[in-house]
Amino acid sequence: METKDFVFELPEDLIAQDPLEKRSDSRLLVMDRISGEIFHRHFYDIIDFLMPGDCLVLNDTKVIPARLLGIKEITGAHVELLLLRRETEDVWECLARPGRKLREGAVVSFGNGLLRGEIIGCLPDGNRRVRFSWKGIFEEVLDRLGEMPLPPYIKKKLSDKGRYNTVYARNDGSAAAPTAGLHWTKELLSKAREKGVEIAYVTLHVGLGTFRPVKAANIEDHHMHSEYYSVSLQEAEKMNSCRANGGRLIAVGTTSCRTLESCAFPDGRIPESSGFTDIFIYPGYRFKAIDGLITNFHLPGSTLLMLVSAFAGREHIMKAYKEAVRLRYRFFSFGDAMFITDTNLSAEQGTR
Question: Which of 15, 25, 98, 114 sees the fewest Cβ atoms within 10 Å?
Answer without folding.
Answer: 98
